[in-house]
Structure formats: C-alpha cells, structure tokens
Write a structure and sequence with these properties.
By secondary structure, the protein is mainly alpha-helical. Helix content is 85%, strand content 0%. The protein contains 6 helices and no strands. The protein is elongated and about 65 Å long. The chain crosses the membrane at residues 40-60, 66-87, 124-146, 152-169. Keywords: Membrane, Transmembrane, Transmembrane helix.
Length: 197
C-alpha cells in the first residue's frame, strides 16, 4: 500500500505543460474572441428585440390605468439601461484587434471581466428590482381580466421565473463566463509571452 501511495504522490506532483505552437494558440484565441464577441452581440440583439416588442405592445394597446403605463415605462427603461451597459462592454472588447495589439486588448479584456462581474452582481439586482416593480405595476390592470386561478398562475409563474433566472441561471452563466474569460486571458498572456521570447 505504501508503494501505491508513493506512486500516487509522484503522479500528482508530476505536472506536464502542454507544448502548443503559437499558430495553434492564435487560432484558439481567435475562436474564443469570436465566440465572446458573438455572444455579446446576440445578447444585445435579444434585449433590443424585447424593447421593440414592449414598445409595440405599449403603442397598439390602450390601457386605462396609469399604473400599467408606469409599469411598462419602468420595464422598458430598465431594459434600455441594461442594454446600454451590455453595449458598452461589447464596444470594449471590439475596440482593438488583439492580433495587432495584444497587450492593449488584454487590458480591455480585463476591464471587460471587471465590468461583467459588476453587471452580474450589484447592477443585475437593480435591474431585477426595476423589472419586478414594472411587471407588478403592469399586472395590476392586466390581471383583472383573468379568473382568480389564472391570476395566481400568472403571478407565480412570472415571479418564479424571475427568481429562477436571478439565482440558478445567473450563477451558471456567471461561472461559465468567468471561466471562459479567465481562460482567454491566460491564453492571451501565454501568447504574448511566446511572442516576446
């Protein structure tokens, strides 16, 4: 048994650094940067789509209660503000070509990482609270047209969905994005080190 423990210790202490060519590393970084930019762009497009749908709904439907209009206004405004923050981050990672200016791009990427951390934490909760208040005010008039069972079902589903997305989904997305950005930063640092040597 001691031999096995000794072999296991040697195995765990033994680290093999994978040798990868700068061309392969560059191809991986290009792919990762492209994926990051595409996901950022898709998020912005989806948010703009939500804004358009809500504006069309607000324009074509007539609401008798002022709370409904205030609720829609708060909801649209919160989505617009969040979309602007997403757009600023998107501009940050598209500011420069990482192949021409890797050190500068690395700085922008690290700033992007900090911005995303803020976006998923304090800023996100402000967004969720504003969204919840907007939807609650919107529901005051709209749910009057439903039976009591459908009212409760709509309330439970809507606020349950918000809670589910704010806790479980947000944590998963945060972890994946954090890992993806950290891996990209590490690759860029290794690539920069290879070019310097």
């Amino acid at each position: 048994m001691q031999n096995f423990d000794f072999i296991e210790k040697i195995w765990n202490d033994h680290s093999v650094e994978a040798k990868i060519s700068s061309d392969e590393m560059l191809a991986q970084v290009k792919k990762d940067v492209g994926t990051l930019k595409n996901k950022s762009f898709v998020n912005i497009i989806l948010m703009v789509g939500c804004i358009i749908v809500l504006c069309v709904l607000w324009y074509f439907l007539t609401f008798s209660s002022i709370t409904t209009n205030i609720g829609l206004g708060i909801t649209i405004l919160s989505i617009i503000v969040y979309s602007v923050l997403l757009y600023k981050d998107h501009v940050l990672i598209n500011k420069t070509d990482f192949t021409a200016y890797p050190a500068e791009y690395l700085t922008y990427l690290k700033q992007y990482q900090i911005n995303r951390y803020k976006l998923y934490n304090s800023t996100y909760w402000i967004y969720v609270i504003a969204l919840t208040v907007g939807i609650a005010l919107y529901f005051i008039e709209i749910l009057q047209y439903f039976s009591i069972e459908w009212r409760w079902l709509a309330i439970i589903f809507t606020f349950g969905w918000i809670l589910f997305c704010s806790t479980y989904v947000r944590k998963i997305v945060m972890r994946r994005e954090k890992d993806r950005i950290e891996a990209l930063i590490e690759k860029l640092e290794r690539l920069s080190a290879q070019f310097k040597s």
